[in-house]
Amino acid sequence: MNCPHCDMFTPDDSIKCISCGKIIKEAAEPVDFYQTPMKKQSPTLNFTHFLLIVVVVGVAVLGYLILIKGSNSQSSNAYGPGEKVNIETLVHEGKTTIFDFYSDYCPPCRKISPLLKKLDEKRDDIVVVKIDINRKGVRGIDWAAPVVRQYGIRSIPHFIIYDASGSRTHEGRNAYRQVVQLLDQEGIQ
After folding, report:
1. How far apart, in Å, are the Cα atoms of 119 and each of 100, 115, 126, 169?
2. 20-29, 62-71, 141-150, 158-167 — which is least confidently predicted?
3. What are phi and psi of 91, to 5 degrees?
4. Poorest-pLDDT segment among 2-11, 34-43, 97-106
5. How many domains in the chain?
6. Which among 154, 161, 187 is positioned nearest to 176, based on CA atoms?
7. pLDDT over 70 percentage in the chain
8. According to the model, what pLDDT value does residue 21 have?
9. 18-27, 33-42, 118-127: lowest mean pLDDT where?
10. pLDDT, mean of residues 2-25
11. Is the pLDDT of residue 96 over 90?
């Protein structure tokens, strides 16, 4: 039976009435946590965890789409920069595809990049695909990167252009001249 007065805890975990001192509940037997086996919980995914995962994945996908797919331009090797890339699989059928091999450590690459983005946004018949030649963790232009060796790149920015039929039309200096000509035609400077 509970005492009508207030309860208080004592150091031995029993409950005593503050007013009369009557013990209302005896202290529990101490538990040795090192000897008592723990109850194994099943690895279940509750609704809150599921919802959190869906939200995080959704935000990541949305961010990717805004960043990469906001225009026709795409960074084809964002998850493996500097690694080999089969650009033939990235050619956009029915459009001129300009592959821009670049490095963030290259001033001319940084200078032409926003111009290419404007060209890509202005012309529906042109797609600019950016390919980062620098492997993660490499400072400076990564001339030893697999993608550099794969395409024999000796200077950057390095361009390779495919026409709307999917045929390679320009590479290297000729492609650079073609890109500059396209920028001039559109008044992009």
Report:
1. 13, 6, 8, 18
2. 62-71
3. -70, 135
4. 2-11
5. 1
6. 161
7. 65
8. 66
9. 33-42
10. 56
11. yes
- Provide the CATH number for the domain around residue 119: 3.40.30.10
36 lies in some domain: no
Flag whether 110 is in a domain: yes
User: Range of 137's domain?
Assistant: 74-185
Residue 6 located in a structural domain: no
Q: pTM (2 decimals)?
A: 0.60
Q: Is the pLDDT of residue 23 over 90?
A: no
Distance CA 115, CA 101 (A): 15
Residue 158 in 3-state DSSP?
A: strand
Tokens of 2: 């509970």
Domain membership flag for residue 11: no
Whole-number Å distance between alpha carbons of 178 and 171? 9
CA distances for 174 relative to 90, 95, 151, 155, angstroms: 21, 19, 15, 13
Closest alpha carbon to 123 in 187, 63, 176, 174:
187
CA distance 59 to 160: 33
Going by C-alpha positions, the residue among 92, 101, 113, 91 that lies closest to residue 149 is 101
Q: What are phi and psi of 175, to 5 degrees?
A: -70, -40
